[in-house]
Amino acid sequence: MDGNAIGLRVHARVDAAAVAHNLAALRARLGPASAARIWATVKADAYGHGLHRVLPGLAGADGLAVSQLADARACRAAGWNGPLLVLGGLLDAEEAQRLALPDLHLALSHDRPIDWLGDAPSRAAPPWIWLRYAGDIGYTGFDDAGYAEAYRRCTVLARQGRIAGIAHLNHYGRAEQPDGIAQADARFQALIRDLPGPRSFCNSAALLRHPDAARSTDWVRPGIALYGASPLPDIDGPALGLRPAMSLHTRIIGIRDVAKGERLGYNGSIVAAAPMRVGMVASGYGDGYPRRTPAGTPVLVDGHIAPTLGAVTMDLIPVDLTGLPPVAIGAPVVLWGTPELPVEKVARHMGTIAAELLTSLTPRVPVIPVPMAGPDDLEQK
């Protein structure tokens, strides 16, 4: 057992070197002939890993993409001096008055921020504007007519020196599918054909499933893949050459031999269909492991796959140890985050996605950073 984990009921490990490896692997997929640069997406505190923990692994990124302006300030405070893309743009006119960060890029999804920027004072280092297209995902962004008008209005701001330039941003709604971007891409390319400016279209799924499209853009925006998880439904991260950056560890704290027909759990929700050996894992929904995890979700017990039995409590997960080599109290358990048990595989069993699990750990889970050099440090999440 890692010395830093002694006495811990549950803990996570975050590996900055894995993030660096994944960034390099994604850049290699673009190929040496591509000029595409990489916005490393660090939304939700770097997908739950902690920005300050993974930032050393992102030194090779060309820029960081965040959700909101406060996150951009946090990146500067953490020591990032490169470009910053705020995907959520501006929340109100007051934010437009306080754009003091250099090398700032703002994604705009509607007309009001253009008004706010027009009313804001000029700056020595004005922001770049990325116009977001609604596209096939349709949540936010300009439609075709609105996009052209927004571009026209932004050219006025550029001539006034209120913005540094105008760029184009799209987000595909079906990028994980083999045929998921062709129509959406053709529509957007036609829209911006006569509108100069850098382009960013591809997230992790688009980069991995449609590398030719990614190579032809100016910026790509990988998120989940940086942390070693695949967004593709038919292939996991390790098969793509990615390394999990977070693993979640706990241990066996109880073992029972259960007779056929015996019931376990609240309201007797688990019924033994045959004699079985049940292990109690020292984690639960109080740590962010979902309460509604279905029976059969895999965990690693002392290096062997074992299925959960459902009925997750705040502090315990029952697992079926029947047929495994002998397991003792204190045996190590990994809930996700190894090449044998990547988080996306666990997420599929739960009916969710890797990003939800990674961003759901609760503050009571200690995190042991795995630095790129030097001894480990123990801290609270």
From TrEMBL:
The residues listed in the UniProt record as binding substrate, with positions renumbered to this chain, are: 314
Required co-factor(s) are:
pyridoxal 5'-phosphate
The record's section on InterPro entries has: Ala_racemase (IPR000821), Ala_racemase/Decarboxylase_C (IPR009006), Ala_racemase_C (IPR011079), Ala_racemase_N (IPR001608), Ala_racemase_pyridoxalP-BS (IPR020622), PLP-binding_barrel (IPR029066)
Pathway connected to this protein: Amino-acid biosynthesis; D-alanine biosynthesis; D-alanine from L-alanine: step 1/1
Q: Which GO terms describe its cellular component?
A: cytosol
**Record-level Gene Ontology MF annotations:** alanine racemase activity; pyridoxal phosphate binding
Role of this protein:
Catalyzes the interconversion of L-alanine and D-alanine. May also act on other amino acids.
Q: What is this protein called?
A: Alanine racemase
User: Which source organism does the UniProt entry give?
Assistant: Bordetella genomosp. 8
The top of its lineage is: Bacteria, Pseudomonadati, Pseudomonadota, Betaproteobacteria, Burkholderiales
